Amino acid sequence: DAEITQSPRHKITETGRQVTLACHQTWNHNNMFWYRQDLGHGLRLIHYSYGVQDTNKGEVSDGYSVSRSNTEDLPLTLESAASSQTSVYFCASRTAKNTEAFFGQGTRLTVV
Amino acid sequence: DQQVKQNSPSLSVQEGRISILNCDYTNSMFDYFLWYKKYPAEGPTFLISISSIKDKNEDGRFTVFLNKSAKHLSLHIVPSQPGDSAVYFCAARANNAGNMLTFGGGTRLMVKP
């Protein structure tokens, strides 16, 4: 079955370290997204991509970057982790025509 | 400034009763609305949606109502079941924003047996 997977599921890192969260989907979806979930804020868009070599900033992109070298993967990098980036991160994907997106199971990141 | 708001962080309902989750929005360019359901330690899953050309969409126990003049939508679950206990997110798409979704803060529903 096609799916979307995130790794790791849990990560603890130190302030100032570079961290990369992986997202891999096997649906061949063009559109991929990264969100963070924080209490009271719901899901906020960090970065998104409409296809290979395409990346765009979302609502809360500062301190994050993404790259899209193939259809299946959209890794999210925290250049220099900060305590404010402690959150649960969700990757999502969908076809170009649809609005509904499929979400991964999330990565809980703690920056200490 | 939140364009999509879910003003009730939590809701507790007895099994068998109706659950009503509310969502308000401010952007008049929103033309499509969705509800997602999220269990702990899982990703959100799509539940039901409604286009702005409709005022009601029903799928089994779940019905979404849209009041465009009030910029308000609601999700009704009848009858509520313990398995419905989850966090529910309202989301909206603007017709000028490339299918991008804006999410509300979520409402935690607890259905008591």
Structure description:
- The complex is a heterodimer of chains A (112) and B (113).
- Chain A is mostly beta strands and 112 residues long.
- In chain A, 0% of the residues lie in helices and 52% in strands.
- In chain A, the strands form 2 sheets. In chain A, strands 2, 4, 5, 6, 9, 10 and 11 form a 7-stranded mixed sheet that branches. In chain A, strands 1-3-8-7 form a 4-stranded antiparallel sheet, with no helix packed on it.
- In chain A, strand 9 and strand 10 form a beta hairpin.
- The mean pLDDT of chain A is 94.
- Chain B is mostly beta strands and 113 residues long.
- Helix content of chain B is 0%, strand content 57%.
- In chain B, the strands form 2 sheets. In chain B, strands 2, 4, 5, 9, 10 and 11 form a 6-stranded mixed sheet that branches.
- Chains A and B meet through strand 5 and strand 10 of A and strand 4, strand 5 and strand 9 of B.
Task: Kindly estimate the percentage of residues of chain B that lie in beta strands according to DSSP.
Answer: over 45%
Give the rounded overall mean pLDDT of chain A.
94
Q: Identify the most extensive interface between protein chains.
A: A-B, 22 and 24 residues
Distance between the ends of chain B: 38 Å
Q: Uncertain runs of chain B with pLDDT below 50, 5 residues or more?
A: none
Distance between the termini of chain A: 37 Å
Task: List SSEs of chain A in N-to-C order.
Answer: EEEEEEEEEEE
Class derived from helix and strand content of chain B:
mainly beta
Taking the sheet with the most strands of chain B, its summary is:
6 strands, mixed
Categorize the overall geometry of chain B.
Answer: globular
Described by the principal axes of the CA atoms, the overall outline of chain A is globular
